Amino acid sequence: MIHFVLLISRQGKVRLTKWYSPYSQKERTKVIRELSGTILSRGPKLCNFVEWRGYKVVYKRYASLYFCMCIDQDDNELEVLEIIHHFVEILDRYFGSVCELDLIFNFHKAYYILDEILIAGELQESSKKTVARLIAAQDSLVEQAKEQAGTISNMIAQATK
Amino acid sequence: MARDLAPEVERLLQFRDPNIRKKAALCSIRIVKKVPDLAENFINPAASLLKEKHHGVLLTGIQLCTDLCNISAEALEYFRKKCTDGLVKVLKDVANSPYAPEYDVSGIADPFLHIKLLKLLRVLGQGDADASDSMNDILAQVATKTESNKNAGNAILYECVSTIMTIEENGGLRVLAVNILGRFLSSRDNNIRYVALNMLMKAIALDSQAVQRHRATILECVKDSDASIRKRALELVYLLVNESNVKSLTKELIDYLEISDPEFKGDLTAKICSIVEKFSPEKIWYIDQMLKVLPKAGNYVKDEVWHALIVVITNASDLHGYIVRSLYRELQTAGEQETLVRVAVWCIGEYGEMLVGNAGMLNQEDPITVTESDAVDVIETAIKCHSLDLATRAMCLMALLKLSSRFPSCSQRINDTIIHYKESLVLELQQRAIEFNYIIEKHQNIRSALVERMPVLDEATYSGRRAGSVPAAVSTSQGAPLNLPNGVAKPTAAPLVDLLDLSSDEVSAPSSSGGDFLHDLFGVDLPPASSQPGGNHAQKSGTDVLLDLLSIGTPLAQSTSMADMLSSGDENKSPADILDKLGSPSGPPSQASPPVGSSSMMDLLDGFGPVSSVPENNGPTYPSLVAFESSSLRVTFNFSKQPGNPQTTYVEAQFVNKSPNAYSNFVFQAAVPKFLQLHLDPASSNTLPASGNGSITQKLRLKNSQHGKKSLVMRIRIGYKINDKDVLEEGQVNNFPRDL
């Protein structure tokens, strides 16, 4: 099971966190600090797995972002590397050549995509097409809601409430 | 909440929309983990999910089944019987499926599904021969056909190997698996190697022969630049060691020790030491290896390890000469490694004459001429070296004392060195220097008996005790006797009293866990500060204890008696000199202020409570009592107790001089059995005017842990100087009021 997902920039800024195990707020900051230190200081040629506090942390660097996932001792690390790649590919497909800025400005969408891929620390969909379709459906819903909110009748309804 | 929502989720497992179904499946996993009882409800719906076509639902369904099997044995049985074949078929389909762009990852169709299926098959096949049989074909197919130039393929292979290793015995498949691992090991990708090392650790349990074949590669991995790989490889090497390969492996590891990173050195040293200890074929090899490790990484060697080394050394009596000479050589080159210096200094002290006389030469040794002054030089260099800590320098002083007896010609020079340390600012060194100087100067006759060879340490009791030792509870003051902190040591009375219970106790008390071995060396049972297990000893030999307490009761004895013990197996020699010291005010300067000295001494005897001021007058009053009376002195005790605290008694002692001469340097000492705690405040003065023209008062606090069961009893000793003559008076106070 994946315990948490962390996206850190090269400078140590946290771009995205998702927790699948109970961690208190204080613990979270502690974990982030520790892991940032460990992972950012690793050399380029070293292997992508770090043993940390009895768990394994799998990380992969894409451009300026480090994608980290923490798993149990008996999980398959190579599989998790694939999951990370799966996630990145979907992001890429959605944003079209994704870069860190996209994630900064559209973090809500990034979270939504992550939720379509992982639930409760497990992979839920291995097909990129399906995920893309689902996200597109969600986007259209959002568009609809925005339009509705903009119509005259709605505005009148709001004003007279 | 999980219970409330479970039926809803169950229903949703059969919803028409596959997206809902897959999310419901993962949700069920969470519910089942939280509330294992609900697992039965989910078995049937989960089984139906396994027949899905939609990959997403299939994935999540498989995950649900895996978790159900892990949680509930019933589910495991069910799935094993009903679903194994179906799963094998699904895996076959996926493995053989043609190119499907939707699920393709680097040429393999849906590797995630592959991996999940393999995981479930692993759980189902573990421990069950039938299920394992049905899987053999597909496992073989996956293992051989999957491409391994991409990560996805490797992930599948890794999972496959893991499954093969876990399910029931099948020779052919196992060979296949180990071959794949071998291939992984020699791959250049760090990730793959890491994963292979991980897998090999599990494989060792099943087929260590196969893993031994890869020993060389694994050794290479220990030297890798990647920290994670190094760690894994070292652990694997540790598991690989057996009697036949221990020598070559250790050699490699020790060679690497020299060039390894500091962070890694600690781990590596610990592993080397434990390998050497467990598998050493003969003593001399063990000692050799330790002699190689100590100069390279002495600072990382833990205390138990070098203590064990010393135990082995004392037992290997024919090798003493060889050992001390090798240590001498090493010390010349690597004088900053703490542990090396300690062991070397100890050995030189013990076996100095063998070093100089070249006794017990072994065939492979080169002759080496060491004069007595060379040996002394070496120790003096060590003691002057400021990077070494207190314990080491204390050990050096001890060794110098031993050498002064073994090398009479250097005795004067050693004495000069020791005199230099009498002014040391470090209390421990100062104490030792003063004691040893005294021994050298005034007690030539007993010196050689004092520093005789140590008795051979019993390995069996040592290893037994080490296995049973409790790491946590012992307070730091009860670490190695040589690690006593600077300044007045703060252990409780118990150690000192127990020390003296030596005379009546058995030497080995295997039930006494905890505490450092070197304490146990002397049969000293050092309990953790809180408990007082030796209480019964005090009862059976009450007066003896008190007597011993007073005769050896000095703070110097507290720490240095340990050190003396180190050199003499017989502590009874020390009382003579220490008693003399007590009596002669013209002795060492540390006795300059007797009242303060006595109260601090007493504090050491009875343990530190906070120095509280005695309350003026509280609680029920008790009649005062004449504790001691002689022709020249009277001691009166006045008691008070605080209400609500019946165990503590405040005593004000009053001393009156009955003789026509004034007393100076007046010192009052008291000792109590173990169930009492005594605290002495400083006396009002140390001069007692003649004929009762004035008196000295001193406040004591007694705490009776056996209040009500035992009454107070105390042994007192009073020393003073009259007309430049020292007088000592002793007595026992038995007539305390019963209810105190």
Automatic annotation (TrEMBL), chain A:
Principal subcellular localization: membrane
Stretches assigned to the AP complex mu/sigma subunit domain: 1-140
One GO cellular component, as annotated: cytosol
Keywords: Cytoplasmic vesicle, Golgi apparatus, Membrane, Protein transport, Transport
Molecular function terms, GO-annotated: clathrin adaptor activity
Record-level GO BP terms: cytosolic transport; intracellular protein transport
PANTHER family per UniProt: ADAPTOR COMPLEXES SMALL SUBUNIT FAMILY (PTHR11753)
Subunit structure: Adaptor protein complex 1 (AP-1) is a heterotetramer composed of two large adaptins (gamma-type subunit and beta-type subunit), a medium adaptin (mu-type subunit) and a small adaptin (sigma-type subunit).
Name listed for the protein in its UniProt record: AP complex subunit sigma
From TrEMBL, chain B:
Highest taxon, organism lineage: Eukaryota
Domain GAE: 620-737
Keyword Translocase: no
Chain intervals for the UniProt region annotation (Disordered): 561-603
Membrane topology annotation: Peripheral membrane protein
GO CC entries: AP-1 adaptor complex
Pfam families in alphabetical order: Adaptin_N, Alpha_adaptinC2
Protein name, per record: AP-1 complex subunit gamma
Organism: Olea europaea subsp. europaea
